[in-house]
Amino acid sequence: MRERPAALAPIFDRVGIKEAVGACNDITEEFTRTIEKYTTHSKTESFSKRDRLTVTFRKSKLESFRTRLNAARDTVQFAVTSATLTTSSSIYSSAEDLKTALVKQEEALNLQSQHLLDIERDIKDLEIDEDAEADETNNIISITTRDRDLTLAVLPVLQKACAEALAVTEAQASNTHQRFGSVTADDFSKVGAGVAGSNFGTGNVQQEFKDTKATKSSQAFVGRMNNQAFNSFWNSPMAKPNSNY
Question: How far apart are CA 152 and CA 125, in angstroms?
Fold first, then answer.
């Protein structure tokens, strides 16, 4: 099964890829604004001596920005991976390999969810200091209202993306995987391979088939079929060997 953009689109919408990328952009823009403020004396690609000292003194604040930016970036990557795993198994040699990848993805998303909660807790615990930027040599780990509000605004977006990505991954991990060899219906016979039932359209079954062959008025179905079609298939009359079918 190959990846299909049309199949990915609704999952991207559910997970909130667009919003998560927007959160990345918001953090990046704020990081850029901060760097520009700390490097006002640098006129070339390299830092001036004064700005180099300023950036050095602000190391912990910049590390805090990087932590938030990495969290946003990683969340987007995890969400995209979950969507891809949900719609494609073509990169895996077997259903077992896909299952293993899904389990690892679940573990990664659970860790990422906890990481986002830790960031939220840490931000709320930091002291608000509107003058934190006034002293260039001040490296006390405190934040302004602007810093806090930005972080607390983007974290729910990232947390939702992570939660939805985990939900679609868990659903995919619980899928049933079926692998069939060649299916052959001999002359004037019926053969079925796959699954039938009212939930056939929920996407909870993944199947692999080789060749399917039916000869001389024989009938065969492979894949998924709802109950009504399944009953009709088996109850429909068969052509007789001496008929002119």
Answer: 12
User: What six digits make up the tokens of 146?
Assistant: 């602007």
Mean pLDDT of the chain: 75
Q: Any idea what DSSP says for residue 201?
A: G
Amino acid at 233: F
pLDDT tens, position by position, 48-63: 666 665 555 566 677 7
Pairwise CA distance, residues 167 & 137, whole Å: 46
148 conformational bin, left if phi > 0, alpha if psi -120 to 50, beta if neither: alpha
Q: Which two tokens stand for residue 67?
A: 């932590």
DSSP 8-state secondary structure symbol assigned to residue 73: H
Separation CA 121–CA 114 (nearest Å):
10
Q: How many residues does the chain have?
A: 245
CA distances from 98 to 47, 144, 175, 224 (A): 48, 45, 11, 21
Instruction: Name, in order, each residue with C-beta under 8 angstroms of 235's C-beta and a sequence gap of 6 or more.
Output: none
Q: In which residue are the tokens 């690609």 written?
A: 45
pLDDT digits (tens, 9 = 90+) for 130-186: 665 555 555 555 567 887 888 889 999 999 999 999 988 888 777 656 666 677 767
